[in-house]
Amino acid sequence: MSSHSMLEITGLHVEFGGLHALNNLDFTVEEGEIVAVIGPNGAGKTTFFNVVSGMMKPTEGQLFFEGRSLLGLDPNKITARGIARTFQNVRLFNNMTVLENVMVSQHCRTRQRMLDALLQTRRFRTEEALVRDRGKEVLGFFGTRLTGYRFDQPASVLSYANRRRLEIARAMATSPKLILLDEPVAGMNPVESAELTQLIGKLRDEMGYTIVLIEHDMSVVRDISDRVVVLDHGEAIARGTYAEVSANPQVIEAYLGQTTDGN
Amino acid sequence: MTETGYFPATQGATEAPAPRRRLLDQDWPKLLRAGAILAVGQVFIALSGMPVTFDRRLLIDPILSLGYLSLLWLPLVVSYWVGREQVLEGMTAYAKGGRDVLAGAMTALLGNAGLALLVVGITHFDIRDPLVNWSPQLLGILEFEESVWLGALIWPAIGAGTGALGGGLHWASSRISRTTVIVLLSVFGAAVLESVITDLTQGFHIEAVSEWLYGPKRGLTYPAAIVVAVAVVGVMTGLAAYRASPARDERAARGEGAATSGGSDTTRPAWRRMPTRRLVNLVLTVAAIVVLPLFLGRLTNELLANVGLFILLALGLNIIVGLAGILDLGYVAFFAVGGYSVAVLTSPGSPRFDPEIPWFGALFVAMLLAGLAGLFIGAPVIRMRGDYLAIVTLGFGEIIRVLLLSDWLSGTFNGAQGITNIPGVEVFGLATVRGFEPRSVLYLVLVFCAIAVYVSWRLENSRIGRAWMAIREDESVAEAMGVDTVSAKLMAFVTGAVLGSFSGAILSAKVGSVFPHSFAIIVSIVILVVVIFGGMGNIPGVIAGAVVLIGILGGPNQPGLLQEFAEYKILIYGALLVWMMIQRSEGLIPSVRRARELHIDEMNQDAWLRAQAAADDAHNGGGNRGGGRP
Q1: Is B601 on the interface with A (CB under 8 A)?
Q2: Residues B368 and B476 in one domain
Q3: Contacts of A124 in chain B (CB under 8 A)
Q4: B263: which chain A residues are within 8 Å (Cβ-Cβ)?
Q5: In terms of domains, do B352 and B490 share one?
Q6: What's the number of domains chain B is made of?
Q7: ipTM exceeding cut-off 0.85 for this assembly
Q8: Is B8 in contact with B80 (CB distance < 8 Å)?
Q9: CA B236 to CA A106: how far, in whole Å?
Q10: Which of B121, B131, B160, B510 could bridge B109 with an S-S bond, Cβ 3.0-4.6 Å?
Q11: What is the DSSP letter of B558?
């Protein structure tokens, strides 16, 4: 078990009709790490997430999660293995309540059958209570923002920042080992963003999740990431700590450029 | 922190009175446009033949027939619509007044000028060839059996009158206009529900009431209409007084206390979690439904049994379309499987399967077969999405009908001759349900409706129900969140199919015969319209949709309350659907669950905010206003 990394990706290719969205990408994540994936628009970051979460099939390459291949698995099976994700353009179940959103994502951790629901068996009732409590627990991670009267509100009435938080809570509710966060602080104000950055740290330190995140906000990347991988045109052009990467001339040329000058 | 910080005073308390506009300060293009639309609508209604067909049915004896009503309602609606103005923030809200009456009157006058032109047109030209209803009968109705000139002049005048009423509804206080609308609808309802009310009074042995209410030609008598109107006004005034009284607030407060005491302790069975007041209401409703058929006559029982069959179908389709979001246009297939399974297995007239088995045994087989059909139809289409899926299901629905009709399988299904001689249902030696005893059929239908409601209700609030809703919301995200979408969608198909087969099985026993043409595509469409009209994904909504549409207009092969409408049923279905999609796409009864939750939320939110404020005060002496707000 300890001989391999949590996530090992080798030689990953994704082609869309001649366009290389990902080109010969190697990527490893160790247990307990926070890895940031950065790169300019169109670099293939979200494609990378789509492949890992099974929503897109790679043209070539190998993916191993805890030593077992993920190739050919449906997204729900990958979630069951322990990889959860959020979406860049928040995709909540808008007409379901906040609590239902985090209840439904425990689907692959629950076992009740339709007959249990129809007959109201003890198994059904205890499991429903567990699912509900677990849902409230994950929502409680974000303080009082998603709790109390919010439980029974449709997700669509939440503020933008709260919708982003609920996306993370929904991913947490799947009881994952690895969470993929796609631009978790996009659209948040600096205060909210700093607070969420702290929470992401807590996700790792207290909840024990391993985290890979895509982020454009460099202050967030600097504050929480153990390692940074820079993608450009589907290739990893640099890896290392934030300090190393931000000093890399290739990265500066491709992407960071002026933004780090101030630092 | 004081409470006012959290609850700012409502705006508008000190607003100046809204300005008034001059009489002729009209939005002329809008009036012209509405008038033209109304003219087209009126001419269309006239030429569709409704006035002629409906003229046989009196609503108020002897002045108003349904035929004339068909030409009166549209001017009222359009002239009311013309006066509607959306006032957004920052726009000036004008006071309503004579200007709106004039606007309504002019719109409807213009619109009915279309009818006047039609009168003149019919007298001078004859184009009965393409337009069947371009006829002397129509002319006779339009000119009140008098003269062309009377007809051509009186319609614009009638338009002006109804239009003034429609526009005036804006002018009057909201209470008066609401009362007017409700009185009009009640009188219409009382007139239209003649057969049911007569049936009911016979059940309670007070035939005298209905004899007094209705004239020989089924319309309300003149005095009866007035009495109904006065009674409605009385009831409404009484209700308004009750609402205003402080006693009600107290009761409401107590009621809310009961409503929230249910808690979320899910380890208790569902019925024990329900607040007592709702439980009492539920028990009373069920008791009423159980007792009522005893007092109803054949006609109403028959009607309700038909409604029940469609409630069953609609609840089944609701699981597929409303909960899982799979647009299934071939739902009739499952209805057919249920109907034919029972027919083949129980009828001595069926060509194959000679040892006939009792209905309940056949029902079991029907359920299995329908479940299998659900799997077979579901499996190939399950990986498709949206339009493609809908088109393929449409095809499958037709395939089943064509198979039933085919020579190839006529050894089993008897082709176009169908299967007849299907016996009734023997209920464990206690009773027999047969088609010519509508009351027994209704009870059988009610039992299965109860089962369907229970199944829908329990599944909606379970793991699979949440999975269905997630798929409806966003299928790929649902899959990424660990939902096995393929099996969940198949389960939706199977569950919906089994509920649909119940309906088919009862239909077989009720009618005593099945034919392939009873399962035409229009049945699928009607069920879908019922679901959409009532409110997708919402059990009370779906039931209300079936009661209103099937009960009043009738199903594809079943007469409704308004048998006069039979020819125009599909036209009205279409019009209602279009109107619904534009005006109220969430359905007749939008998810009540959500509505109630939202309402309770407001109160919970207030309570929560107060608690937060108190906590803040305790912490830092009222300095922090944040209070955990996002």
Answers
A1: yes
A2: yes
A3: 462
A4: none
A5: yes
A6: 2
A7: yes
A8: no
A9: 50
A10: B160
A11: S
